Amino acid sequence: MRFRRKSADDAQPETPGAGAGEDTSAGTAPAGPHDVNEMPELPEGVQRVDLGSLLITPTSGTELRLQVDEATGDVQAVLLTAPDGALELRAFAAPRHGDLWSEVRPQIASDMAQRGGTATEVEGVWGPELACELTRTLTDGRTGQQRSRIIGINGTRWMLRATLIGGAARDGENRARWDAVIRTVVVRRGEGAMPVGEPLPLSLPEGARRLGPAATTPAFSKPSGSASDGAQPGDATPGT
Known about the structure:
The protein is mainly β and 240 residues long. The chain is 11% helix and 35% strand. It has one domain (19-231). It has two helices and 16 strands. The protein is globular, with a radius of gyration of 17 Å.
């Protein structure tokens, strides 16, 4: 899914070149996430999981999984899960100059409202975020509130969308732990021209194995134990 843009350069591809990440109006924090050309070294013995456009650092207590389209086999998103919540990650092509996150926030809020939910803009570590709530019907027929926090971070010709789900979306010590995970993410934009708003391609890591029964969006994980999963940042709510 691509983000919709209102500007005239809607149909024009973003051309390669340096100079991305200069606009930090979405509040890009200097400590991360990082562009692949500026990523810090890891401690000896620790390796990032290479998923194409996203490089994920193994984090204690989390499982890394991938959301895959059953029909096409394309990896759609990355999801880090833990007992206290989850983090959904996906990156998009962005212009060298501008603020893609500010453009797409109203779109996400509108999509949420159309689905009967709410999206309230709040200030976060990286600037404006969307605190979302949506009433969902559970498998046992009961209804419950699904809470998420959608974060957009402008980078070097890319925008990372990070969606905190469940307990991870609550402020406090728990939120701080998940923010630290977001800071470790590395984005690989690539040099080729891409339309602004186009999802950056994700790929299965070598040796990934399928988990669970066949599904529309099956999950995969690394046999090593640092598993990885994903979701679509273009949607109003995670996992849809």
